Amino acid sequence: MTGPSGTAGSVVEAAPADSGPSAGDWAAAESLLRNLSPEARVLLVCHVNPDGDALGSMLGFALGLQRLGVRRMQATFPGPPEVPVPLQGLPGLDLLVPATEAYPAPDLVICFDAASESRLGELVDRLDTAGASLVLDHHASNTHFGEVNLVDPYAAATSVVAEQLLTRLGVGLDAGIAECLYVALTTDTGSFRFEATTPAVHQLAARLLATGIRPGDISRRVFDTRPFGAVRLFGEVLGRARLEPVAADGRGLVWTWATLDDLVRHDQRPYVLEALIDSVRCTAEADVSCVLKQTAPGEWAVSLRSKGAVDVSRVALALGGGGHRFAAGFTGRGTAEEVVDRIRGQLDAAVIPSAGS
Ligand code: AMP
Ligand code: MN
Ligand code: MN
């Protein structure tokens, strides 16, 4: 029922995407879920190459819906049905189905952590075939592509929005829901290190921990474990990093790249590269960091980070992607050098004026 044409009315007015959900949005979302018939098929979808927030908010919400009595429910994401090993301990994984097996015409589709329809890959058609669509997200760039949109750019993670909706629906936290939401929250706040780590984030973390989940075990599994081959791969990729102090009007750029051949030589899966940006962005001499991860010949998944002087979401949006001010990404085409050249070309304009010189 929804889709590009059906949602146009709510999208066009360059609605200040930073205002967060209105009382009407919350009420509409509640009513969609409270009025589900017992036979309704609910499809939950998160963004391609799911991270901890995508999977954690989706599965935590799915477990909450089960508690509400929803019986016919699938969770899925576009692309190969491969869950990164660090996330394979998440509760609720039994609800996951490959995208190829997802209900073709669910009664309700709920999207998690996806800023735009393009992040839903081949599952984007469900926005049209579903009886209704609900979007839960926290990207300021969200295009409000659902029939009902709960988009809160001030939320540190989509899981914050998910927990608020569960609370409104009267679903209390249990350890399963809490573990999913905790993984999501720690992933997107860099384990409570990023600017989005508000008092409310810590209060949510406290409620989640009060269910008895074990933060040490969870963090070790999700953040601090990788195969020896990945450790060596990281060494090689970090060893070829390049520092360009004059880029971004003198704020500096550091970048590196990993090819499919690198993965083969070290016998590693692509998701191990997701943690690489965290080592690169430590570079003191650069505000902006970038990792190019080859996904096919001439195609790269590009991760961008800033320490605060540059709005990298502007760079990513200009190059066809999206994200947050200080963490964004896009798909780059050509050689690594060509892609970085395009990034260089966007950086000066993306320096935040108030960040001073
Ligand atoms: P990543 O570097 O993959 O961890 O992504 C950082 C941020 O950028 C996340 O908020 C993503 O949602 C967003 N992002 C990454 N890749 C893309 C893309 N190809 N298109 C739109 N947004 C993206
Ligand atoms: Mn995400
Ligand atoms: Mn997120």
From TrEMBL:
Residues 269-348 form the DHHA1 domain. Transmembrane segments: none annotated. Gene3D superfamilies: 3.10.310.30, inorganic pyrophosphatase (n-terminal core). Residues 1-23 are annotated as: Disordered. Residues 41-184 form the DDH domain. One of its GO terms (molecular function) is nucleic acid binding. PANTHER family: BIFUNCTIONAL OLIGORIBONUCLEASE AND PAP PHOSPHATASE NRNA (PTHR47618). This is Bifunctional oligoribonuclease/PAP phosphatase NrnA. It comes from Micromonospora musae.
